[in-house]
Structures are given as structure tokens and as C-alpha cells.
Write a structure and sequence with these properties.
The chain has helices spanning 50-58, 104-120, 144-160, 174-177, 199-203, 217-227, and strands at 24-27, 40-44, 62-68, 71-73, 87-90, 96-99, 125-129, 164-168, 183-187, 208-212, 230-233, 243-244. It is an alpha/beta fold. It is globular and about 45 Å long.
Length: 245
Amino acid sequence: MLAACGGVAPGAISQRRPPAHASWQWQLDGRLDARVPARLYDVDGFDASAATVARLHRAGRYVVCYVDVGTWERWRPDARRFPRALLGAANGWPGERWLDVRQLRALAPLLRARFAMCRRKGFDAVEPDNVDGYSNVSGFPLTAADQLRFDRWVARAVHAQRLAVALKNDLDQAAALAPSFDFAVLEQCFQYRECGQARPFLRAGKGVYDAEYALAPAAFCADARRLGINAIRKRLALDAWREAC
């Protein structure tokens, strides 16, 4: 059992939040290193098997399922199921394009299938990535209202699977979205001095997990501890390497 981490035994389903204060590991590339001494593991939902999730649970980990919801990735096994009309501009990563998140009728069954995959594999929570297309050059005239509608739908769809859900970045809308999401996963909020926007989560006792890429731990760990943010340093590749506060 994962009582200490807020998780559940392998094969069970939880909608409980992850710990508000915990060490964490975020690995999306390379062979998963399960030896990292972290309570929360955030790993690729397609790449991680149910056996891997169960192994992490046996080690006392709370396990988060990373899936993309706002961009299309050409290498995913379901990539051909996405209608071409939904694909917009490249988002800066090879093989990725923004999705038209206004088109929920077309997107909903595809994304629900991904969230159901996370549930079947035994994950505790979902990290839905790229939920801020409205603030990027997406190729679509997305508005803040479009994004709020989509992000709230994502939260409801994940909760329908009885899983917890993270808000990934989109700090400009954090105050409006905090009631719908169970925790937050951020990138470089200390480097760009945006961490204060995560206060709606912190005030609600919800965990905030941040990864810094350019700053040394000495430059952000003291502030992270003061604010109650779980911060680590990672490489952009998001392999197993990490420096914890």
C-alpha cells in the first residue's frame, strides 16, 4: 500500500491528490531508473507498462502518467487517429504540432482513450501536457476562454477515470483552474519569476512540483522551501538525471 504517498496498491484506482510536500522524479526519456529516492514519479504513460507502475507502487511511489493533450506527436501509436484538420503549427519540438483544442467533439474520444490507458496501467494521476496553446503560436485563433473550456474538460475527463490530475504550466490561468485540478507541474517558474502565480494551489494545500533547467539548485532551493514548492533541476531531455533540493 502507498498510505504514506497518498497512492494505492497495484491495480487499484485512486483520485486522491499526491503529497503536497514530497521529493519527485520526472523521467520521460531513456530506460526508467526506479532507484531514484523520490516519493513521486512522473513517467511517460505510453512507455511505462503496468508492470513498471506496479513495481513503483511496491516501492512506495505515487505514480503520475504523462500524456500529451494539447499537441500531436507523430511517434505515438494512436497518431494516425487524429484528423489532419486538428493539426496546427509546430510547437518547437521535432514531430509535434499544436492541436485545435476548440474541436472537442473530435478530440474527446482520443483523449479519453489515453486517460483510460493510464487507469488500466494502474497510475494514480495524469499529467496532461501542453494545455496553454492559446498563449503560443498554435496556428489557430485560440482564446483564453477556449483554453479554460478545454482545460476544465480535461480535468473532468481524468477525474471520470478516478485519477488525480495536474495542471501543467498555464500559470496565467492558475487562479481560475486551481479548483478543477489536484496539483500543478511547472517548468522554470523560478528562472522566469512566475512561481507566485502558483499560490492558488499552495493556499489550497495542493502540491506544486517544479523543474528548473538552467538554474543551479543553490539559486532556487531556498525559495522553493520557503514557498512550499517541490523543486528539482533537470536536463531538457528529461532523462533519469536530476538534482534535488
